[in-house]
Design a protein that fits this description.
single chain, about 120 residues, mainly alpha, 2 domains
């Protein structure tokens, strides 16, 4: 029961940060999604130590464990866009493929660069 209350409190904190991101995007009329601003705000809070990882870790791991369920609504919504996919399917597939390859390359090169820095650093 105690763990459930902790997870609920942590989820409420994460929801608060997310809603703050939406509010900031709305107030400043930024062309950036509020959920992205919320994630950047959470990153800043974690990086500065204002929020400790332990304060959100249980709820964050719960959300990550069930991440696949969050894709169900968008997938069902995409089923109604069959005409769009038939008309622009090739362009969509090419765009997704190129962006995935670029993302993988950037992630791979970044991790290689960070690994080589770690190897060069004196212990």
């Amino acid at each position: 029961m105690k763990r459930l209350l902790i997870v609920i409190a942590q989820l409420a904190g994460l929801l608060l940060v997310s809603q703050l991101g939406y509010a900031i995007a709305s107030w400043l009329h930024l062309p950036v999604p509020g959920n992205l601003l919320g994630m950047l705000l959470l990153l800043a809070l974690l990086a500065t130590g204002v929020v400790r990882l332990a304060w959100i870790e249980a709820s964050a791991s719960l959300l990550v464990r069930h991440l696949a369920f969050f894709f169900v609504p968008i997938t069902v919504g995409l089923m109604g866009l069959g005409d769009l996919f038939r008309a622009n399917g090739a362009a969509i597939v090419i765009t997704l493929t190129v962006s995935a390859v670029v993302g993988l390359c950037v992630a791979g090169l970044s991790s290689q660069r960070l690994a080589s820095r770690r190897e060069r650093r004196p212990s």
